[in-house]
Design brief:
20 helices, single chain, Growth Hormone, Chain: A, 74% helix, 470 residues, disordered N terminus, mainly alpha, 0% strand
């Protein structure tokens, strides 16, 4: 009904019905590079801590804080950047999350002790969290309705490159003969390089057409929409200063408050259940996904009990390359064909089965081939499942004026779930071993399946304006 009321010649209708253009690919790459950086920084800390355990001899609590502080900071970053992007505009804030990330990465490389490393990782985490709602929304608001799932998932799938490049660089530096005390600092500092490059590129992306239209900026809206098809010479160029928002005469533009967006989502009977569904699904997925990484040492010990750090890093690379990375791209290809709801439901279901098998098959960690098959399946269906769909969903479920706010809330809940999972799983392992940890992950995955079926609609093939109707 909404689509029928839109003039086919209108730029918004044309944007909705478009295929993938050169500008779409450009926006996808610029947005996705942030997630490459995010994945690199979140992975590399594991290698760094293996080195620092012999140098600084941190306590178990300090090790846990270094590994998880960035996650709780990411929750704060997602909430703050998400809300501010709705208040000031996507472009006005886009790129600064990468600048914060770069500052945290460089500072971490110069940490004089473990406490300063924890502080600097917190700063880095703020930037990582800010990337989630803004990048997803910018890509989603530019994409056509039939390719939105593909493009937004491809943004997120750039994580796969970070998960592969990280171990490769780590193995290379570890094998180079450089002193370990220098290697860990280099590995942390490298994370700032793509972040700074992304900062520059993101400052030259135009404001999204849909946000400009919502603010009454009709001329800028037409220019931004036209740039997608090469109709406007400005393309994606221009700085924040050269594209100041100018309201259309006669249009009253309200100045939103920070708390107003949260209140609007909570008060609406349609958007609140969606917010709960998207947030709960992301919380449960990240709890199981991040928490389940405690089984990685079991994989490594089963394959090669006395492996050194280089061998461990290469084994992790093998798991990422064979199982995880393909899952991202299978999800991207099928997101607009199968749909978000079915992919998320299948993913949670297979995760539950895989985790149950890891928990209940006797001595599974000694059965190398079966363990790797089941463990790899859990990774594949996490990526071809809720790890991808929980990123796509939130930027589709809410109206433009609270879109990044809702996405930021969902992302924040995911990172809180990851934080809790990282701390809970070692406790479960010490209490009752692999069985307790994996059964917990299985139970959480079943909850994720129920949340998906009960609270989340199918969004494939629908315009953002149609989906945002309350």
């Amino acid at each position: 009904m909404v689509e029928a009321a839109i003039d086919p010649k209108d730029p918004l209708s044309r944007l909705d019905d478009s295929g993938i253009t050169k500008q779409h690919w450009k926006i996808m790459l610029i947005s996705g590079m942030g997630f490459f950086t995010d994945a690199y920084d979140l992975f590399i800390i594991g290698v760094v801590m293996d080195i620092l355990k012999t140098q600084w001899r941190p306590t178990p609590l300090e090790v846990g804080l270094v590994s998880s502080t960035a996650l709780i900071a990411a929750a704060i970053g997602a909430m703050v950047f998400g809300r501010v992007a709705d208040m000031l505009g996507r472009k006005r804030i886009y790129g600064y999350e990468c600048l914060v990330l770069a500052i945290g990465a460089i500072a971490s490389a110069f940490s004089p002790n473990i406490m300063w490393l924890i502080v600097f990782r917190f700063i880095l985490g703020i930037g990582i969290g800010g990337d989630y709602p803004v990048s997803a929304t910018i890509m989603g608001e530019y994409a056509g309705k039939r390719t939105r799932g593909l493009l937004v998932t491809l943004v997120f799938s750039m994580q796969a490159a970070g998960l592969v490049i990280g171990p490769l660089l780590a193995a290379g530096f570890l094998a180079s003969g450089l002193a370990p005390a220098l290697v860990w600092r280099i590995l942390l500092a490298i994370g700032a390089i793509p972040a700074l490059a992304v900062f520059y590129a993101r400052r030259h992306i135009s404001e999204t057409p849909r946000y400009l239209l919502s603010r009454g900026n009709h001329e800028e809206f037409k220019q931004a929409a036209g740039s997608v098809f090469g109709d406007d010479k400005t393309g994606l160029g221009g700085t924040a200063e050269s594209q100041q928002q100018k309201s259309h005469p006669g249009v009253e533009v309200k100045h939103p408050t920070f708390a107003g967006g949260f209140q609007k989502l909570i008060a609406n009977r349609v958007w609140l259940p969606r917010l709960i569904g998207a947030s709960a699904a992301w919380f449960l997925m990240d709890f199981a996904y991040y928490g389940n990484t405690v089984s990685s040492p079991l994989v490594l010990s089963a394959l090669e009990p006395h492996a050194n750090l280089i061998h461990k890093t290469l084994l992790v690379l093998l798991v990422f390359t064979v199982a995880a990375a393909p899952g991202y791209f299978v999800a991207a290809i099928n997101m607009d064909k199968i749909g978000r709801k079915l992919i998320q439901s299948i993913g949670f279901g297979v995760m539950a089965v895989a985790f149950t098998c890891l928990a209940l098959i006797p001595n599974i960690q000694q059965l190398v081939a079966p363990f790797l098959v089941i463990y790899g399946a859990s990774y594949f269906f996490t990526e071809f499942g809720p790890n991808s769909t929980t990123f796509v969903y939130p930027n589709e479920l809410f109206p433009v004026d609270v879109r990044t706010t809702g996405s930021g809330i969902a992302a924040a809940m995911g990172k809180i779930g990851a934080f809790i999972g990282v701390f809970t799983f070692p406790i479960l392992m010490s209490w009752h071993g692999l069985e307790a940890a994996e059964l917990t992950a299985a139970f959480v995955s079943v909850l994720g399946l129920f949340v998906t079926l009960a609270l989340l609609p199918e969004t494939k093939g629908k315009s953002l304006e149609e989906l945002s109707l309350a």
